[in-house]
Amino acid sequence: MLFRAKKFTNENGEMFFTGLKDGDIAETVLMPGDLARSKIISECFKQAHFVKGQRTYYTYTGVTENDTPISVVSSGMGPLAVSTVAEECVQIGCKNLIRVGTGAALLTDYEPGRIIIATGCV
């Protein structure tokens, strides 16, 4: 059985928490926790523009170097905030959601600035 979350929007069709609506984001979304980091990431896009800023959810959309549409939406901190943003993004068309941010490693072999891709968590 397939379950779907109810899509909570206001009278303008904007999602309850992020204020985003259909067409505001690309199918691929980068999701940092920090709203200031959203702007920094968006500066790497071509044709980047600010879409919406509501609560801690700041959104920018643009295109990559090969003209693929891409968005960045900040999530704030904690699992509830992240799941809220993820759910709302999926409900308005996101197909690829990539959580980006800083982290720590327990192994001493990794120098600061190294890119680490998590394949699991506890």
Question: Can you describe this structure?
Answer:
- The structure is a single chain.
- This protein has a five-stranded mixed sheet, sandwiched between helices.
- The mean pLDDT is 90.
- With 122 residues, the chain is an alpha/beta fold.
- The protein is built from two helices and five strands.
- The protein has a domain at 28-33 and 49-70 and 78-101.
- Helix content is 17%, strand content 24%.
Q: What's the helix and strand layout?
A:
Layout: E1 28-31, H1 35-42, E2 46-54, E3 57-63, E4 69-73, H2 79-91, E5 96-99
Parallel strand pairs: 1-4, 1-5
Antiparallel strand pairs: 2-3, 3-4
Please tell me how large the radius of gyration is: 15 Å
Please report the total strand number as a whole number.
Answer: 5
Mean pLDDT level: 90
Q: Cα distance, first to last residue?
A: 28 Å
Could you say which overall geometry the principal axes of the C-alpha atoms support?
Answer: globular
Beta-strand share of residues:
15-25%
Count of alpha and pi helical runs: 2
Uncertain residue segments: none
Sketch the major β-sheet: 5 strands, mixed
Strand order of the largest sheet: 2-3-4-1-5
Please write the string of helix (H) and strand (E) elements.
Answer: EHEEEHE
Structural class: alpha/beta
Which bin fits the share of residues in helices?
Answer: 10-25%
